[in-house]
Amino acid sequence: MFYRPEEGHGLPHNPFNAVVTPRPIGWISSRGTDGADNLAPYSFFNAVAYTPPQVMFASTGVKPDRDGTKDSVANIRETGVFCVNIVSYALKDAMNATSGPWPRETDEFALAGLAREECRTIACSRVAAAPAALECRLTQIVQLPGISNLVVFGEVTGVHLDDACLVDGTFDVTRFNPLARLGYKDYSVIREVFSLTRPGQ
To answer: Which of 14, 22, 63, 99 has a 20 to 30 Å separation from 200 between CA atoms?
Structure first.
């Protein structure tokens, strides 16, 4: 099968997200200038640089009360900070609860029954139970082609790691089993890992 996206795929559901998988989930916490916290998952998320450490996430939706974007991006525009919370398998249901199109005034931490802790380098809450969290300062927001496609880039200014996941000096993901986004309504979980040595190393 071959199709051109502008001509449609002819399938019951768009296969694009099922092709680009698995994708890590950036569970983005942010805070508006009114002090209200927001928490929402984004599967267009990844690390993009080592020095200094930087991450990105893309928002592709829009809410009518948020000037062409969603609560997360609107808050980050206002305050210039956000936190990426890593989603473990144990937090899958809480993460899913925060993915709904909730009104602007909704506190997703409370909605999902999540305890929060204050970040150390930025004025923002983080998910206390997350196995890792990355405190970030906004570096730029890039408008992509399309009505509401925005990419948010941030520099990591603080890193939280669950001590229970540190094994012999390495961060062992099998201790918390990261959740990954697939296509459609599907997810996967990392339970097994293997290593490969690059040529010349």
So the answer is: 22
| Residue 74 · residue 32 · CB < 8 Å | yes
| pTM (2 d.p.) | 0.95
Q: Hey, where are the domains in the chain? A: 24-189
- DSSP single-letter state for residue 178: B
Q: Write out the two tokens for 98.
A: 């925060």
Per-residue pLDDT reduced to its tens digit, 5-50: 999 999 999 999 999 999 999 999 999 999 999 999 999 999 999 9
Could you please state the CATH topology (level 3) that the domain comprising 24-189 is classified under: Pnp Oxidase; Chain A (2.30.110)
Before 41, cis peptide (omega within 30)?
Answer: no
